[in-house]
Design goal:
The chain is an all-alpha fold. The chain is built from 6 helices and no strands. The chain is about 85% helix and about 0% strand.
Length: about 180
């Protein structure tokens, strides 16, 4: 009875822990050996966009054929590409002058991100209250696909503006560390 379920729970915990360690090792090796090369090769904006695009594709595969393998693969892709995206995101702030770089990052991470999370949470609660239970999964999936589409469209649109801003700041006079 209880001893058998504990050994099953222990085995499950051990298996999931082993998978998590494996994913973390791949993440570390990717960060050390590949991430900077990818960012240099395809650029900051494409590196930032790569993570949600590939995650969306992997999630789509999981939607049509869910299995333990697709779930673990999706988690691995999310973690590994999330690290590359995070590196590119942090590097993207160097397009701003040093005087406003930290202010921009604090504003985005301290105000915009939490505010966006609150709005998203309230919107999902609202959908949950007005829709019948049978439609929750489909509605949440459609909302996430819509948000994903808006984010990718806006990021692609802003990519050219970001590049021109970075070039403009590099072309101005003054010591390079101050740019």
């Amino acid at each position: 009875g209880k001893e058998e379920s504990m050994s099953g729970a222990d085995a499950l915990t051990h298996g999931l822990g082993t998978i998590n360690i494996f994913i973390s090792v791949i993440f570390l090796l990717t960060e050390l050996l590949v991430a900077n090369r990818i960012i240099r090769k395809i650029g900051l904006m494409k590196s930032i966009l790569m993570s949600p695009l590939v995650s969306f594709l992997v999630s789509s595969i999981m939607f049509f054929k869910y299995s333990f393998f697709t779930a673990v693969s999706s988690k691995a892709v999310y973690e590994i590409l999330g690290g590359i995206k995070k590196n590119a995101y942090n590097a993207s702030f160097y397009a701003f002058r040093s005087k406003i770089r930290s202010l921009a990052k604090e504003f985005l991470e301290g105000i915009v991100r939490p505010f966006g999370m609150m709005i998203g949470t309230f919107f999902l609660f609202f959908l949950q209250k007005i829709l019948p239970l049978d439609f929750h999964d489909a509605a949440f999936s459609l909302v996430l696909i819509g948000v994903f589409g808006i984010m990718v469209t806006q990021a692609a649109r802003l990519s050219k503006k970001y590049t021109s801003l970075a070039k403009k700041n590099l072309e101005t006079h003054g010591p390079l560390p101050e740019k």
